[in-house]
Every structure is written in structure tokens, then in C-alpha cells.
Amino acid sequence: MTREPAISVRDLTLRFGAVTAFEGVSCDVARGELFAVIGPNGAGKSSLFNALSRVYQPDSGTVRFLGEDFLKLRPQQLAGKGLARSFQNLGLFPTLTVLENVLIGRHHLMRAGMLRCGLGLGRAEEQGHRHAALEALEYLSIADLAGTEVQLLPYGHQKRVELARCLAMEPAVMLLDEPVAGMSSSERADMTELVRRIHRERELTLLLVEHDMGMVMSVAERVMVLDFGVPIVTGTPSEVQADPRVIRAYLGEELQAA
Amino acid sequence: MTEFLQLAFQGFSLGCTYALIGLGFVVIFRASNVLNFAQGAMLLVGAYLISWLAVDVGVPFLVAVLVAASLLTLGGAGFQAVVLRRVTGQPPFVIAMITIGAGIALVAGVEAIWGPEQRLLGDPWGSSSFQVGGVTIGWVKLWGIVVTAVAVAGYFAFDRYTRSGLAIRAIAGDEEATLSVGVPVRRMHAITWGLAGALATLGGLFLAGFPGAPQPTLGDAALRAFPAIVLGGLTSPVGAVIGGVVIGIVEVMTSGYAPDWTGANFYAVAPYIVMIAVLLVRPYGLLGRAPAERL
Known about the structure:
The complex is a heterodimer of chains A (258) and B (295).
Chain A: E1 7-16, E2 19-29, E3 34-38, H1 45-51, E4 60-65, E5 68-69, H2 78-81, E6 83-85, H3 98-103, H4 114-118, H5 123-139, H6 155-168, E7 173-177, H7 185-202, E8 205-209, H8 213-219, E9 222-227, E10 230-235, H9 237-242, H10 244-251, H11 253-257
Parallel strand pairs in A: 3-8, 3-9, 6-7, 7-8
Antiparallel strand pairs in A: 1-2, 1-4, 4-5, 9-10
Chain B: H1 2-32, H2 39-57, H3 61-82, H4 92-114, E1 129-132, E2 135-138, H5 139-161, H6 163-171, H7 175-180, H8 185-207, H9 221-232, H10 237-257, H11 266-281
Antiparallel strand pairs in B: 1-2
């Protein structure tokens, strides 16, 4: 690889008092790669995800993001640097419409001038953003819901709205936090297909944190397995699945002994 | 009939002022769930600043209004940025207490600087008026209606058509998500306080217009605008405007038509009766809504 990775994590450690969320995590996510982090409950996946979205400040280690010192960026700067994230429990604005929820993803792309827009001089620009938002909704087949308030939608559709907002942000890297958590098996299959399609068609770097083994193994190009906050294996899905340490982490010592 | 029209005009005019005050409450509340109890003190400061600039300093009245509104905008945003930012994440109760304290300090400050007596507002209208079909139209009341209409229209345009307006509507939904799409949440909160400051100045201006005057009790009117926002719904700007107008009309109509046995101050009670009646049917106000799950 001649190009610098999209995300480069070195020896990242996060502690809450005496509790270690994760320790010594290193990984490189290449540009355009679909990289997944998995692990059993409490393995530190969500903490790692939150550190990579600047919600938590790690205690030590470094993160390079598209060539910048990631840990120096403020949370509201990430969107402008090309990072979009989804939330495990949805990060939508329930009382706004679907279109507004997606439109706000373009906040960092809009010119600041509140007076200009207020006076209607930014009409062409506004149309452009509206168009881009609608296009993202169409891509996820929910354009017909544009005028609906988000809180009235079923969970599966809300998840799509969130994905549409991430796309409308025109990111280089997308962080997806357990995209199929809490979904029925048919919603799960739909979402898995969507993630695969977005990755294939949009030339994005995707970093997926997920509990669901089946989902990860079917979409990821490379997988890092965390157990008790420590990365135990990183490799292709088949390598990871065959690794005895992974089986032990997921099934536990006793089961294996039995 | 003439009496009815007279009262309707006066009620509508008073209601417009309540709408300005109510909007000031709602702008802040719906972005942060904080009820700004200093709103009354802010409009007091606004009225006194206009009075001081127009009478003592002697600048043209329009300039006095614009300067006072700018100062309160900066003051509101500054208060949010310097004081309230430090208590982000505290329960709304704590923040409400801080605003109560700030309000008391502002009222005391105004009295310390300008004394307890009434002042002149320095407006060009005074008690002047004209007649239309037997109804007396006070110029200051008419201007109150016009300015409210412009301010409300301006606010709604900001709310609907600017990226900051959209961002502010989103903040109340989910702060972390708002940050993740690149919205500087703190700046947005400061903007809401700035807007509240500007609205308070205009509200103070028309409360202090004839037959009122800049005096230390002026801010009490904010408490009378309170039923207006509760009536309309604490999170709804449209509700605040409608509620303000309704309460203004109810108050003035009651003072004109209530029978003697209801007592001399029944007009002050009537808005609360209307408010309670509405809340029995619609607990979150006419246009308010049940709070979203995450607060």
C-alpha cells in the first residue's frame, strides 16, 4: 500500500478509573476498505467506537485520520474532515421531518451566511442541498417519506434515515455503530445488503462495530476481534473464524473444554 | 360595538407584546429545556437602555432601540457562553435557579443605576393617537403590532430557512447527534440566548410605551406572559405567538367586561383560568408536544 491509511490507530488505551475499556489497540484501515471490529459483550467495542468519534478522550496512543492528528479535532469538526457516524440507538431528531434530518447532515457544507439564506439569495445553494438530501433518500428507497416526521417511522426506516444522513454528509469515512442491533431478521438482511451496497457503490471507507457475527462475516473485508479490551486477532473473515482464540472468546473456556 | 372594538385593539396590541416575550422564552426552552426566569429582567434592562440612550444620551430613538437590542443580544449570548456553558449537563432545575439569580441581579442593578422612579421612554409617539370609527388607535400600540409582526416573521424565516435555524431545532432532539453532523452546539445555544435578548428588548420597549413607562416592576409582565407560552406550548414558537395574542385579548376583555362582583383585579387572574382550562384538555399546550424520549 503506497497511500496512507484512512485511519491509523496506534496503542490506543482508554480507562475509566480502574476499569480498562480497551488497551493497546492498533490497526490500520485502508482507504476504501470495509473494516469491522467485533467482540463479545463488554469487549470494548462501543468504547473504541466512541473514542473514534471523539466522544471519549483516550488516555494514551495516537489516531491518524486522513493524515491528521485525530485526537486534536473537536467533535463538531469531524463532519467537515470527512467523518460521518451512525448511532447504535439512533441519533435522529424525532420532531423534524425525514428530509430535515438528512438536510442537517449538510450543515458543514452550507455557507455560513445566515442573512444571505434568510434573504433568499442563497436559493440556488439551498436547492442544491435539498437535491442532495433527496438523492440520499432515494438511494435508500425512502424518498416517499421525505415529509414525514421521523418519530412516526418504524425502527427499520429510522435506521435508513440515519444512513441517508451519513451519505448526505459526503464523508470519506463512515463509522457504523452496531447497524443491525435490535433488528428483526428481515430488517437485518436488508441492512446488511445496504451496507454492502453503499461500500461497493460509494467508494467509502467503512468502519463497522458490530456484535452480530453473521453480519460482519458476510460484509467485512478485514475484522479485528476484541476481547476484554485487547485485540486478539486481526484478519480476513475466514482467518478470524478459524482462529481458536476467537472461538474461545466467543464461546468461553468451559464450553470449549466440554 | 365601539367599546368591543376598542378593547379588541388594545387586547391585540398587548397580546403582541406578550407574543414577543413568550417567543423569547420558547427560543431558549426548545433548544435546551431551560426556562429562562431572567427574561423579565432582560426586558426591563432593554427598556431602561432604550430610555437612557434616547433621553440621557440623546441619540435618535431608532438608534437607541437598535443599540439596546444589539447590547442585549451580545449580553444574552455572552451570559450563555460565559456562565451557562459551565453548567452544561446539570439538571434544568440548577440552570433555572441560575437564571432566577441573574434576573434578581439585573433588576437590582437597574434600580441601583437609575433609581426606583419611573422614567421617560423617550419614544416619539408618547400618548398620541388617532381615531378610526370611534376607536382610538394609540400610535405606540400600532407600532407594537407592526414591530411584532416583523420580528415574528423574521424569526420564523430564520427558523425555517437558515442552517442555524435548522440546527437549533435539531439540538433539542439529540445533542450528540447534532455534534456528529458538524453543528457547533455551544454556538447555537449562544445564538438562542442572543435572540432572546433581542426579543426582550422589543418586548420591553412596547411594555414601557404609553400608558406604561420604564419602571422597576416592568419585568413582572414576563410572569403575565407565562400563561401565554404554557397555553401555546413551551416548545412551539407558533404556540407562543398565538398564546400571547389570546392572553392579551382575554386580559383586556376581562378588564372591560367582567362584572363587578369578580373584583378589581380579575383581569390578572383570567389568563391563568384560560391556561388551566386549556391544559386540562391539552396537557402540553395548544401546539406543544410531549417531550421526546431523550432529554
